[in-house]
Amino acid sequence: MDPGIESGWQTGKTVLDCNRYMLEHDIGTDVCFEIGQTGGATVTVRAHRYVLTSRSEVFEALFKSGTTECRNENEAKIRIDDIQPEIFREILRFIYYEKAEVNGENATLLLYASKKYLLPVLTRHCRDYLLKNLSISNAVSVLEHGLLFDEKELSRGCLRLISLNSDAVLKGVEILSASKSTMDSILSLTVMASTELDIYEACVNWARCRVLGEGGSVEEPTDDQIRVALGHLLYKIRFPTMDPVEFARLSVKRGVLSSAEKEAVYYYFVTKERVAELMFSAEKRWGEEIFVDRTVSCITEKWRYSTPTVDAINFKADCGILLTGVGLYPGHLQTGYDVDFEVMESSKSLFKRRTSVPHSANATPWKISLDRPIVISAGVAYTIKAFAHDDIGFYGNPCEPVCSTGKVTITFTGYTGGAELAKTATNGNYGQIPRLFFYQF
Protein backbone atom coordinates (compact mmCIF):
# COMPACT_ATOMS: atom_id res chain seq x y z
CA MET A 1 0.00 0.00 0.00
CA ASP A 2 1.18 3.50 -0.82
CA PRO A 3 2.38 5.25 2.40
CA GLY A 4 1.23 8.59 0.95
CA ILE A 5 -2.49 7.79 1.22
CA GLU A 6 -4.56 10.74 2.42
CA SER A 7 -6.78 10.41 5.48
CA GLY A 8 -10.42 10.42 4.47
CA TRP A 9 -9.54 10.09 0.82
CA GLN A 10 -13.04 8.84 0.00
CA THR A 11 -14.69 12.15 0.84
CA GLY A 12 -16.20 14.00 -2.12
CA LYS A 13 -15.28 11.33 -4.66
CA THR A 14 -17.51 9.47 -7.06
CA VAL A 15 -17.37 5.68 -7.34
CA LEU A 16 -15.09 5.99 -10.36
CA ASP A 17 -12.89 8.47 -8.51
CA CYS A 18 -12.57 6.02 -5.61
CA ASN A 19 -11.75 3.19 -7.98
CA ARG A 20 -9.02 5.28 -9.51
CA TYR A 21 -7.56 6.23 -6.14
CA MET A 22 -7.53 2.61 -4.93
CA LEU A 23 -5.85 1.44 -8.13
CA GLU A 24 -3.19 4.13 -8.09
CA HIS A 25 -2.38 3.64 -4.40
CA ASP A 26 -2.70 -0.19 -4.18
CA ILE A 27 -5.41 0.00 -1.52
CA GLY A 28 -6.94 -3.35 -0.62
CA THR A 29 -5.58 -5.18 -3.66
CA ASP A 30 -6.02 -8.95 -3.78
CA VAL A 31 -4.58 -9.93 -7.17
CA CYS A 32 -1.04 -9.50 -8.46
CA PHE A 33 -0.21 -9.59 -12.16
CA GLU A 34 3.34 -10.42 -13.17
CA ILE A 35 3.74 -8.97 -16.66
CA GLY A 36 6.58 -9.88 -18.98
CA GLN A 37 7.71 -12.42 -21.53
CA THR A 38 8.52 -15.93 -20.33
CA GLY A 39 12.10 -16.12 -19.14
CA GLY A 40 12.47 -12.36 -19.01
CA ALA A 41 12.05 -9.61 -16.43
CA THR A 42 8.57 -8.97 -15.09
CA VAL A 43 6.67 -5.93 -13.85
CA THR A 44 4.25 -6.32 -10.95
CA VAL A 45 0.82 -4.68 -11.18
CA ARG A 46 -1.80 -5.06 -8.43
CA ALA A 47 -5.57 -4.84 -8.72
CA HIS A 48 -8.90 -5.96 -7.20
CA ARG A 49 -10.77 -9.12 -8.12
CA TYR A 50 -14.12 -7.48 -7.43
CA VAL A 51 -13.56 -4.61 -9.88
CA LEU A 52 -12.11 -6.81 -12.57
CA THR A 53 -14.93 -9.35 -12.22
CA SER A 54 -17.57 -6.62 -12.39
CA ARG A 55 -16.27 -5.29 -15.72
CA SER A 56 -14.88 -8.27 -17.65
CA GLU A 57 -16.35 -11.73 -18.08
CA VAL A 58 -12.86 -12.97 -18.95
CA PHE A 59 -11.53 -11.99 -15.54
CA GLU A 60 -14.66 -13.42 -13.93
CA ALA A 61 -14.06 -16.78 -15.61
CA LEU A 62 -10.39 -16.63 -14.68
CA PHE A 63 -11.07 -16.12 -10.99
CA LYS A 64 -13.71 -18.84 -10.99
CA SER A 65 -11.50 -21.31 -12.82
CA GLY A 66 -9.78 -22.69 -9.77
CA THR A 67 -6.33 -22.50 -11.37
CA THR A 68 -3.37 -22.59 -9.00
CA GLU A 69 -2.64 -18.90 -9.56
CA CYS A 70 -6.11 -17.88 -8.39
CA ARG A 71 -6.48 -20.10 -5.30
CA ASN A 72 -4.65 -17.89 -2.84
CA GLU A 73 -7.33 -16.06 -0.89
CA ASN A 74 -5.01 -13.25 0.17
CA GLU A 75 -3.47 -12.37 -3.18
CA ALA A 76 -3.73 -14.34 -6.41
CA LYS A 77 -0.73 -14.21 -8.71
CA ILE A 78 -1.31 -14.30 -12.45
CA ARG A 79 1.33 -14.26 -15.17
CA ILE A 80 0.69 -12.31 -18.41
CA ASP A 81 3.23 -12.70 -21.19
CA ASP A 82 1.41 -11.36 -24.27
CA ILE A 83 0.69 -7.76 -23.21
CA GLN A 84 3.16 -4.99 -22.39
CA PRO A 85 3.01 -3.54 -18.85
CA GLU A 86 1.91 -0.05 -19.92
CA ILE A 87 -0.79 -1.48 -22.17
CA PHE A 88 -2.09 -3.59 -19.28
CA ARG A 89 -2.11 -0.54 -17.03
CA GLU A 90 -4.15 1.29 -19.68
CA ILE A 91 -6.60 -1.63 -19.68
CA LEU A 92 -6.93 -1.35 -15.90
CA ARG A 93 -7.49 2.40 -16.10
CA PHE A 94 -10.37 1.81 -18.48
CA ILE A 95 -11.83 -0.95 -16.31
CA TYR A 96 -11.56 1.11 -13.13
CA TYR A 97 -12.62 4.59 -14.25
CA GLU A 98 -13.46 4.39 -17.95
CA LYS A 99 -10.49 6.40 -19.13
CA ALA A 100 -7.84 5.20 -21.56
CA GLU A 101 -5.42 7.13 -23.72
CA VAL A 102 -5.57 5.77 -27.26
CA ASN A 103 -2.81 7.08 -29.52
CA GLY A 104 -0.79 6.14 -32.57
CA GLU A 105 1.73 4.14 -30.56
CA ASN A 106 -0.67 1.98 -28.57
CA ALA A 107 -3.91 1.75 -30.58
CA THR A 108 -3.28 -1.67 -32.15
CA LEU A 109 -1.84 -3.07 -28.90
CA LEU A 110 -4.83 -1.81 -26.95
CA LEU A 111 -7.14 -3.22 -29.59
CA TYR A 112 -5.67 -6.67 -29.01
CA ALA A 113 -5.88 -6.37 -25.21
CA SER A 114 -9.44 -5.02 -25.27
CA LYS A 115 -10.56 -7.95 -27.40
CA LYS A 116 -8.72 -10.42 -25.18
CA TYR A 117 -10.55 -9.17 -22.09
CA LEU A 118 -13.87 -8.57 -23.92
CA LEU A 119 -14.10 -4.82 -23.40
CA PRO A 120 -16.23 -3.82 -26.41
CA VAL A 121 -16.40 -0.10 -25.61
CA LEU A 122 -12.61 0.17 -25.52
CA THR A 123 -12.42 -1.95 -28.66
CA ARG A 124 -14.68 0.57 -30.39
CA HIS A 125 -12.53 3.48 -29.18
CA CYS A 126 -9.43 1.81 -30.63
CA ARG A 127 -11.19 0.98 -33.90
CA ASP A 128 -12.53 4.51 -34.27
CA TYR A 129 -9.10 5.99 -33.59
CA LEU A 130 -7.44 3.77 -36.18
CA LEU A 131 -10.09 4.51 -38.80
CA LYS A 132 -9.88 8.24 -38.15
CA ASN A 133 -6.10 8.21 -38.48
CA LEU A 134 -5.77 5.88 -41.46
CA SER A 135 -3.24 7.02 -44.04
CA ILE A 136 -1.36 5.71 -47.03
CA SER A 137 1.66 5.09 -44.81
CA ASN A 138 -0.12 2.95 -42.19
CA ALA A 139 -3.03 1.32 -44.07
CA VAL A 140 -1.23 -1.99 -44.67
CA SER A 141 -0.09 -2.44 -41.06
CA VAL A 142 -3.52 -1.51 -39.70
CA LEU A 143 -5.09 -3.95 -42.16
CA GLU A 144 -2.78 -6.65 -40.76
CA HIS A 145 -4.27 -6.08 -37.32
CA GLY A 146 -7.80 -5.78 -38.62
CA LEU A 147 -7.53 -9.20 -40.26
CA LEU A 148 -5.69 -10.76 -37.30
CA PHE A 149 -8.32 -9.57 -34.80
CA ASP A 150 -11.27 -10.22 -37.14
CA GLU A 151 -12.19 -6.53 -37.08
CA LYS A 152 -14.32 -6.40 -40.22
CA GLU A 153 -15.18 -2.70 -40.06
CA LEU A 154 -11.55 -1.77 -39.58
CA SER A 155 -10.45 -4.07 -42.41
CA ARG A 156 -13.08 -2.61 -44.74
CA GLY A 157 -11.88 0.91 -43.98
CA CYS A 158 -8.27 -0.06 -44.72
CA LEU A 159 -9.17 -1.81 -47.97
CA ARG A 160 -11.23 1.16 -49.12
CA LEU A 161 -8.32 3.54 -48.54
CA ILE A 162 -5.95 1.13 -50.31
CA SER A 163 -8.41 0.81 -53.19
CA LEU A 164 -8.56 4.58 -53.63
CA ASN A 165 -4.81 5.08 -53.23
CA SER A 166 -3.48 1.82 -54.60
CA ASP A 167 -0.74 3.41 -56.70
CA ALA A 168 0.90 4.98 -53.65
CA VAL A 169 0.35 1.92 -51.45
CA LEU A 170 1.69 -0.59 -53.99
CA LYS A 171 4.80 1.51 -54.61
CA GLY A 172 5.43 2.17 -50.91
CA VAL A 173 7.79 0.30 -48.60
CA GLU A 174 5.16 -0.80 -46.08
CA ILE A 175 3.61 -3.36 -48.39
CA LEU A 176 6.91 -5.21 -48.73
CA SER A 177 6.56 -6.51 -45.16
CA ALA A 178 2.87 -7.46 -45.48
CA SER A 179 1.80 -10.97 -44.58
CA LYS A 180 0.52 -13.34 -47.23
CA SER A 181 -3.05 -13.08 -45.89
CA THR A 182 -2.89 -9.29 -46.10
CA MET A 183 -1.60 -9.46 -49.68
CA ASP A 184 -4.45 -11.87 -50.44
CA SER A 185 -7.01 -9.36 -49.16
CA ILE A 186 -5.48 -6.53 -51.19
CA LEU A 187 -5.29 -8.59 -54.38
CA SER A 188 -8.90 -9.67 -53.88
CA LEU A 189 -10.08 -6.06 -54.26
CA THR A 190 -12.40 -5.71 -57.23
CA VAL A 191 -11.59 -2.02 -57.63
CA MET A 192 -8.11 -0.50 -57.56
CA ALA A 193 -6.86 2.74 -59.04
CA SER A 194 -3.83 1.00 -60.53
CA THR A 195 -2.96 -0.82 -63.71
CA GLU A 196 -2.66 -4.59 -63.49
CA LEU A 197 0.99 -4.21 -64.53
CA ASP A 198 1.63 -2.10 -61.43
CA ILE A 199 -0.13 -4.74 -59.32
CA TYR A 200 2.02 -7.49 -60.84
CA GLU A 201 5.25 -5.55 -60.23
CA ALA A 202 4.24 -4.92 -56.60
CA CYS A 203 3.66 -8.65 -56.15
CA VAL A 204 7.04 -9.51 -57.63
CA ASN A 205 8.77 -6.97 -55.35
CA TRP A 206 6.92 -8.39 -52.34
CA ALA A 207 7.89 -11.96 -53.24
CA ARG A 208 11.49 -10.91 -53.82
CA CYS A 209 11.65 -9.45 -50.28
CA ARG A 210 10.14 -12.66 -48.89
CA VAL A 211 12.78 -14.81 -50.57
CA LEU A 212 15.65 -12.56 -49.50
CA GLY A 213 14.30 -12.27 -45.95
CA GLU A 214 13.60 -15.95 -45.36
CA GLY A 215 16.78 -17.34 -46.84
CA GLY A 216 19.15 -14.60 -45.84
CA SER A 217 20.53 -14.73 -49.37
CA VAL A 218 22.20 -11.76 -51.00
CA GLU A 219 21.66 -13.15 -54.49
CA GLU A 220 18.78 -12.04 -56.69
CA PRO A 221 15.91 -14.58 -56.43
CA THR A 222 15.18 -16.69 -59.48
CA ASP A 223 11.82 -16.61 -61.26
CA ASP A 224 11.04 -20.04 -59.79
CA GLN A 225 11.69 -18.71 -56.28
CA ILE A 226 9.46 -15.71 -56.97
CA ARG A 227 6.67 -18.02 -58.14
CA VAL A 228 6.98 -20.25 -55.08
CA ALA A 229 6.92 -17.23 -52.76
CA LEU A 230 3.78 -15.90 -54.45
CA GLY A 231 2.02 -19.26 -54.29
CA HIS A 232 -1.73 -18.84 -54.81
CA LEU A 233 -1.32 -15.05 -54.96
CA LEU A 234 -0.08 -15.43 -58.53
CA TYR A 235 -3.62 -16.37 -59.56
CA LYS A 236 -4.99 -13.18 -57.99
CA ILE A 237 -3.20 -11.15 -60.68
CA ARG A 238 -5.50 -10.44 -63.61
CA PHE A 239 -3.10 -10.89 -66.50
CA PRO A 240 -5.88 -11.05 -69.17
CA THR A 241 -6.86 -7.45 -68.32
CA MET A 242 -3.39 -6.10 -69.12
CA ASP A 243 -2.50 -4.31 -72.30
CA PRO A 244 -1.19 -7.05 -74.67
CA VAL A 245 2.04 -5.13 -75.32
CA GLU A 246 2.66 -4.75 -71.57
CA PHE A 247 2.03 -8.45 -71.06
CA ALA A 248 4.41 -9.37 -73.88
CA ARG A 249 7.18 -7.28 -72.33
CA LEU A 250 6.80 -8.75 -68.85
CA SER A 251 6.61 -12.26 -70.32
CA VAL A 252 9.98 -11.77 -71.98
CA LYS A 253 11.50 -10.06 -68.96
CA ARG A 254 10.53 -12.74 -66.42
CA GLY A 255 9.67 -16.41 -66.45
CA VAL A 256 7.28 -16.37 -63.47
CA LEU A 257 4.46 -17.71 -65.64
CA SER A 258 4.65 -21.10 -67.32
CA SER A 259 4.57 -21.40 -71.10
CA ALA A 260 1.06 -22.85 -70.95
CA GLU A 261 -0.15 -19.92 -68.82
CA LYS A 262 1.35 -17.39 -71.22
CA GLU A 263 -0.24 -19.14 -74.20
CA ALA A 264 -3.63 -19.14 -72.47
CA VAL A 265 -3.41 -15.38 -71.87
CA TYR A 266 -2.36 -14.69 -75.48
CA TYR A 267 -5.21 -16.88 -76.72
CA TYR A 268 -7.63 -14.84 -74.61
CA PHE A 269 -6.25 -11.56 -76.00
CA VAL A 270 -7.01 -12.74 -79.54
CA THR A 271 -10.27 -14.65 -79.09
CA LYS A 272 -11.69 -13.44 -75.74
CA GLU A 273 -12.26 -17.12 -75.02
CA ARG A 274 -11.10 -18.94 -71.91
CA VAL A 275 -9.22 -22.23 -72.02
CA ALA A 276 -8.57 -24.60 -69.13
CA GLU A 277 -5.05 -23.26 -68.61
CA LEU A 278 -6.32 -19.71 -68.05
CA MET A 279 -6.41 -19.61 -64.26
CA PHE A 280 -6.59 -15.82 -64.01
CA SER A 281 -9.62 -13.55 -63.78
CA ALA A 282 -10.41 -11.58 -66.94
CA GLU A 283 -12.61 -9.07 -65.10
CA LYS A 284 -11.17 -5.58 -64.91
CA ARG A 285 -10.79 -4.23 -61.42
CA TRP A 286 -12.54 -1.05 -62.43
CA GLY A 287 -15.89 -2.72 -63.08
CA GLU A 288 -18.25 -1.37 -65.73
CA GLU A 289 -17.49 2.06 -67.12
CA ILE A 290 -20.40 4.50 -66.98
CA PHE A 291 -20.80 8.16 -67.91
CA VAL A 292 -22.83 11.29 -67.26
CA ASP A 293 -23.77 13.67 -70.05
CA ARG A 294 -24.74 17.12 -68.93
CA THR A 295 -26.22 18.22 -72.26
CA VAL A 296 -30.00 18.68 -72.36
CA SER A 297 -30.06 20.02 -75.91
CA CYS A 298 -27.15 20.01 -78.37
CA ILE A 299 -26.84 22.89 -80.84
CA THR A 300 -25.26 22.07 -84.23
CA GLU A 301 -23.35 25.26 -84.85
CA LYS A 302 -19.74 26.43 -84.95
CA TRP A 303 -18.34 27.16 -81.50
CA ARG A 304 -15.34 29.45 -81.68
CA TYR A 305 -14.24 32.58 -79.92
CA SER A 306 -12.83 35.56 -81.81
CA THR A 307 -9.48 34.58 -80.29
CA PRO A 308 -8.48 31.11 -79.05
CA THR A 309 -9.83 30.64 -75.53
CA VAL A 310 -9.78 27.87 -72.96
CA ASP A 311 -13.08 26.17 -72.10
CA ALA A 312 -13.21 24.94 -68.53
CA ILE A 313 -15.67 23.47 -66.07
CA ASN A 314 -15.54 22.55 -62.39
CA PHE A 315 -17.14 19.38 -61.09
CA LYS A 316 -17.70 17.57 -57.80
CA ALA A 317 -18.88 14.01 -57.18
CA ASP A 318 -20.88 13.04 -54.11
CA CYS A 319 -18.93 9.78 -53.72
CA GLY A 320 -15.55 8.40 -54.75
CA ILE A 321 -15.18 7.57 -58.45
CA LEU A 322 -12.39 6.73 -60.87
CA LEU A 323 -12.35 9.20 -63.76
CA THR A 324 -11.34 7.36 -66.94
CA GLY A 325 -12.08 9.84 -69.72
CA VAL A 326 -13.79 13.02 -70.89
CA GLY A 327 -16.06 13.49 -73.89
CA LEU A 328 -15.54 16.52 -76.18
CA TYR A 329 -17.71 17.56 -79.12
CA PRO A 330 -16.41 16.77 -82.67
CA GLY A 331 -14.89 19.36 -85.03
CA HIS A 332 -16.76 21.75 -87.32
CA LEU A 333 -17.43 21.01 -91.02
CA GLN A 334 -14.89 18.59 -92.53
CA THR A 335 -12.08 19.34 -90.13
CA GLY A 336 -11.22 18.10 -86.70
CA TYR A 337 -9.14 20.02 -84.23
CA ASP A 338 -6.20 19.65 -81.90
CA VAL A 339 -6.92 20.28 -78.25
CA ASP A 340 -4.76 20.83 -75.17
CA PHE A 341 -6.61 18.94 -72.47
CA GLU A 342 -6.00 18.98 -68.71
CA VAL A 343 -7.56 17.66 -65.49
CA MET A 344 -6.68 19.55 -62.32
CA GLU A 345 -7.30 19.52 -58.58
CA SER A 346 -6.96 23.10 -57.45
CA SER A 347 -3.61 24.18 -58.98
CA LYS A 348 -2.26 20.63 -59.27
CA SER A 349 -2.27 19.07 -62.73
CA LEU A 350 -3.41 15.43 -62.64
CA PHE A 351 -3.39 14.74 -66.39
CA LYS A 352 -2.31 16.78 -69.40
CA ARG A 353 -2.15 15.94 -73.09
CA ARG A 354 -2.44 17.39 -76.57
CA THR A 355 -4.65 15.20 -78.73
CA SER A 356 -6.88 15.37 -81.80
CA VAL A 357 -10.66 15.30 -81.97
CA PRO A 358 -12.03 14.29 -85.39
CA HIS A 359 -14.89 15.79 -87.40
CA SER A 360 -18.28 14.13 -87.29
CA ALA A 361 -21.78 15.01 -88.43
CA ASN A 362 -22.93 13.27 -85.27
CA ALA A 363 -22.82 15.22 -82.01
CA THR A 364 -21.82 12.19 -79.94
CA PRO A 365 -18.89 13.31 -77.77
CA TRP A 366 -15.45 12.01 -78.70
CA LYS A 367 -13.87 10.22 -75.72
CA ILE A 368 -10.41 11.25 -74.59
CA SER A 369 -9.18 8.32 -72.48
CA LEU A 370 -6.83 8.94 -69.58
CA ASP A 371 -3.61 6.95 -69.36
CA ARG A 372 -4.81 5.61 -66.02
CA PRO A 373 -7.86 6.35 -63.89
CA ILE A 374 -7.80 9.42 -61.66
CA VAL A 375 -9.21 9.03 -58.16
CA ILE A 376 -11.96 11.61 -57.65
CA SER A 377 -12.65 12.09 -53.95
CA ALA A 378 -16.15 12.86 -52.74
CA GLY A 379 -16.90 16.56 -52.30
CA VAL A 380 -13.60 17.79 -53.77
CA ALA A 381 -13.65 20.28 -56.66
CA TYR A 382 -11.80 19.31 -59.85
CA THR A 383 -11.33 21.26 -63.06
CA ILE A 384 -11.28 20.16 -66.70
CA LYS A 385 -9.70 22.50 -69.24
CA ALA A 386 -9.82 22.18 -73.03
CA PHE A 387 -8.01 24.58 -75.36
CA ALA A 388 -9.21 23.91 -78.93
CA HIS A 389 -6.92 25.07 -81.76
CA ASP A 390 -9.72 25.07 -84.33
CA ASP A 391 -13.50 25.23 -84.62
CA ILE A 392 -15.81 22.91 -82.67
CA GLY A 393 -19.03 21.91 -84.38
CA PHE A 394 -21.43 21.64 -81.42
CA TYR A 395 -22.23 22.97 -77.97
CA GLY A 396 -24.75 22.28 -75.24
CA ASN A 397 -27.57 24.73 -74.59
CA PRO A 398 -28.89 24.19 -72.02
CA CYS A 399 -26.81 21.85 -69.88
CA GLU A 400 -27.75 20.25 -66.59
CA PRO A 401 -25.61 21.54 -63.71
CA VAL A 402 -26.45 18.42 -61.66
CA CYS A 403 -26.30 14.96 -63.28
CA SER A 404 -26.93 11.54 -61.74
CA THR A 405 -26.40 7.98 -62.85
CA GLY A 406 -26.74 4.96 -60.59
CA LYS A 407 -25.65 6.07 -57.13
CA VAL A 408 -23.37 8.86 -58.34
CA THR A 409 -24.33 12.54 -58.55
CA ILE A 410 -21.97 15.02 -60.20
CA THR A 411 -22.38 18.79 -59.91
CA PHE A 412 -20.93 21.10 -62.60
CA THR A 413 -20.12 24.77 -62.03
CA GLY A 414 -18.34 27.47 -63.98
CA TYR A 415 -14.63 27.99 -63.40
CA THR A 416 -13.44 31.51 -62.71
CA GLY A 417 -9.83 30.99 -61.67
CA GLY A 418 -6.98 32.14 -63.89
CA ALA A 419 -6.68 35.04 -66.31
CA GLU A 420 -6.74 32.75 -69.36
CA LEU A 421 -10.35 31.81 -68.53
CA ALA A 422 -11.72 35.32 -68.23
CA LYS A 423 -13.61 35.04 -71.55
CA THR A 424 -14.78 31.43 -71.34
CA ALA A 425 -18.48 30.95 -72.04
CA THR A 426 -18.64 27.37 -70.77
CA ASN A 427 -20.35 27.06 -67.40
CA GLY A 428 -22.67 24.74 -65.50
CA ASN A 429 -25.61 25.52 -67.80
CA TYR A 430 -24.01 25.98 -71.21
CA GLY A 431 -21.08 25.19 -73.48
CA GLN A 432 -18.43 22.53 -73.93
CA ILE A 433 -17.06 19.44 -72.08
CA PRO A 434 -20.36 17.56 -72.11
CA ARG A 435 -19.44 14.12 -70.82
CA LEU A 436 -17.44 12.40 -68.06
CA PHE A 437 -16.54 8.69 -68.11
CA PHE A 438 -15.80 6.90 -64.86
CA TYR A 439 -16.02 3.79 -62.71
CA GLN A 440 -17.96 3.81 -59.49
CA PHE A 441 -16.47 2.48 -56.25
Task: Give a brief description.
Helices cover 34% and strands 23% of the residues.
Explain the overall architecture.
The chain has helices at residues 15-24, 49-55, 57-64, 85-97, 107-116, 120-132, 139-148, 152-164, 166-170, 180-187, 196-215, 223-230, 244-253, 259-271; strands at residues 31-35, 43-47, 76-80, 290-293, 298-303, 310-317, 321-328, 337-345, 348-357, 366-376, 382-388, 392-396, 402-405, 408-414, 435-440. Helix 2 packs across helix 3 and helix 4 packs across helix 5. It is of the alpha+beta class. It contains 14 helices and 15 strands. The radius of gyration is 31 Å and the shape is elongated.
Characterize the overall form: elongated
Which spans of ≥5 residues are poorly predicted at pLDDT below 50? Answer: none
* Helicity level: 25-40%
Give the helix/strand class.
Answer: alpha+beta
Chain-wise SSE layout:
Blueprint: H1 15-24, E1 31-35, E2 43-47, H2 49-55, H3 57-64, E3 76-80, H4 85-97, H5 107-116, H6 120-132, H7 139-148, H8 152-164, H9 166-170, H10 180-187, H11 196-215, H12 223-230, H13 244-253, H14 259-271, E4 290-293, E5 298-303, E6 310-317, E7 321-328, E8 337-345, E9 348-357, E10 366-376, E11 382-388, E12 392-396, E13 402-405, E14 408-414, E15 435-440
Parallel strand pairs: 1-3
Antiparallel strand pairs: 1-2, 4-15, 5-12, 6-11, 6-14, 7-10, 7-15, 8-9, 8-11, 13-14
Helix pairs in contact: 1-4, 2-3, 4-5, 5-6, 6-8, 7-8, 11-12
